[in-house]
Amino acid sequence: MSNVDLILGTDHARKRAVRTEPTQRRSSQRLDALLDAAAEIVDEIGFERLTTQMVAERAGASIGTVYRYFPDRVAVLHSLRERSVRRYRERVADLFDGTEFDGWWHAVELAVDACIDLYRDEPGFSVVHGSERELSDDGIEPEFADRLASVIEAEFGELGDGEELRFRLGVAIELVDSLVNRAFMRDPEGDERYLREAKRVVREYLEGTLGGRRRVESAA
Predict the structure, then answer these.
(1) pTM of the predicted model, to two decimals?
(2) Distance in angstroms (rounded) separating the CA atoms of residues 176 and 38
(3) How far is CA 49 from CA 62, 64, 68, 128, in A?
(4) Nearest partner of 104 among 157, 51, 30, 178, judged by Cα
């Protein structure tokens, strides 16, 4: 399986927030317009204050159109988050496609860079920070930690214990999420000090655990 497939995976088990899945192009465009409107509002006033009426007004739609797709504001936010997560995975997959990694940090750093890029480029992406993460099939570690671990295992199988790898990447995701989110709270373009520190902290954390364990195993 390619690295792109490992990152994108399948979403067959994910609970959908949309009341009615669009089956025609016009309906799909209408749904995207509602989510685009919600994203703009989230960036302006935060997700806590968003209402379905605001979404309708910003999208130039009736409140009935909003309720056709979403039962309430929470469903709007869940759907916006699903779209943001999907676009993040697609961005990571694009970066991984055809890349020859020169080490496990190369793969992790590209995933961090994709997160930073989407904070800058994807309206409403901050909603990802305010929601619970999807868990992997075993219900323990974040789903993306499992996907990224699969890529690293495919490229650098010598890293060893898969459960430990997923645990460490899960911790790393929490560190990156907190520090990158704080960087963009301090500066709309991202406080470079926080962004640099996010990479430094995560790299040192992973090197001190995964890297050290690899050397011990090799010596054995």
Answers:
(1) 0.85
(2) 25
(3) 19, 20, 21, 16
(4) 157
Q: Which two tokens stand for residue 193?
A: 């000090």
Write out the chain in H/E/C secondary structure.
CCHHHHHHCCCCCCCCCCCCCCCCHHHHHHHHHHHHHHHHHHHHHCHHHCCHHHHHHHHCCCHHHHHHHCCCHHHHHHHHHHHHHHHHHHHHHHHHCCCCCCCHHHHHHHHHHHHHHHHHHCCCHHHHCCCCCCECCCCCCEHHHHHHHHHHHHHCHHHCCHHHHHHHHHHHHHHHHHHHHHHHHHCCCCCHHHHHHHHHHHHHHHHHHHHHHHHHHHHC
Closest Cα to residue 203, out of 181, 171, 161?
Answer: 171
Q: Which residue has the tokens 């929601």?
A: 131
- Give me the mean pLDDT over the 140-165 stretch: 84
Tokens of residue 28, six digits: 């799909």
In sequence order, the 6+-apart residues with CB closer than 8 A to the CB of 147 are: 6, 7, 9, 89
Q: How far apart are CA 88 and CA 172, in angstroms?
A: 17
d(CA 220, CA 214): 10
> Over the stretch 42-85, which tens digit does the pLDDT of each residue have?
999 999 999 999 999 999 999 999 999 999 999 999 999 999 99
> Smallest Cα–Cα separation from 89: which of 20, 16, 164, 142?
142
